[in-house]
Amino acid sequence: MSINQSDYIRDIVSAFKKLPGIGERSARRLAFYILSQNESVAYSLANAIKDGKQNIKLCKNCFNLSGEDFCPICKNTSRNSKLLCVVENPEIIYVFEKSGNFNGFYHVLHGLINPLEGITPSDIKLKELAFRVEQGGFEEIILALNPNSNGEATMVYIQKILSPYNVHITALARGIPIGSDLEYVDKDTLSEAINYRKNFG
Fold first, then answer.
1. Which residue, of 5, 7, 58, 74, has the fewest CB within 10 Å?
2. CATH 2.40.50.630 correct for 58-199
3. What Å distances lie between residue 83 and 75, 76, 88, 136, 167, CA to CA?
């Protein structure tokens, strides 16, 4: 049975469905929730997204999301300048910071090598990673990538491009289930994975 809905409602549902993990039912629930609230709720959400898109950019150093040229982490001189943690996306930084167990710096790749989707090493921030390591100062590179085939392929490639430099390369301990996503790992498990990280390669 077809349900006659306003084109406006269908457009909102369609927009929500583009978000990761949001299916038809969840998108419809969100759409009707927003429409049932006071106008200020919808406008506040829309303005927050608009302001974020207009003002948030990539940190010129680590490629984290930032409102300025350099993110607060890169500007923090109290952090351990010998440690560099390589992550897939900015959301993983939030997970690490929430765990409170890492005090080094980060490098965000913005993706993983994925031949099936046509994502090659040149499509992510690998050249920039090599440049940062080449500049010297880092003693350990921690590969904090998802334990799946794309994560493994990316880690192998990183090991290859960093081999000319005198740095110790480690990976998170395997307390994290194979195939899981780091953004969904609880902070205690992540802390253990950081503490008991192992040599990579």
1. 7
2. no
3. 15, 14, 17, 11, 10
CATH code of the domain made up of 7-55:
1.10.8.420
Confidence of residue 2 (pLDDT cuts 50, 70, 90): very low
Q: Output the CA angle 160-107-60, nearest 5 degrees.
A: 120
Phi/psi at 198 (5° precision): -125, 165
Strand partners, 84: 105, 141
Whether pLDDT at 26 is above 70: yes
How far apart, in Å, are the Cα atoms of 55 and each of 2, 4, 45, 76? 42, 38, 15, 21
The pLDDT of residue 104: 96
- SS3 assignment for 40-52: HHHHHHHHHHHHH
Question: What's the average model confidence in pLDDT over 153-172?
Answer: 93
Q: Maximum CA pair distance of the chain?
A: 66
Sequence-distant (6+) residues with CB within 8 A of 104 are 79, 80, 81, 82, 83, 84, 85, 142
What are the structural domain ranges in the chain? 7-55, 58-199
Strand order, beta sheet including 83-87: 105-108, 83-87, 140-144, 168-171, 198-199
For 84-116, write each residue's pLDDT tens digit. Answer: 999 999 999 998 898 888 999 999 999 999 999
Task: Identify residue 168 by its one-letter amino acid code.
Answer: H
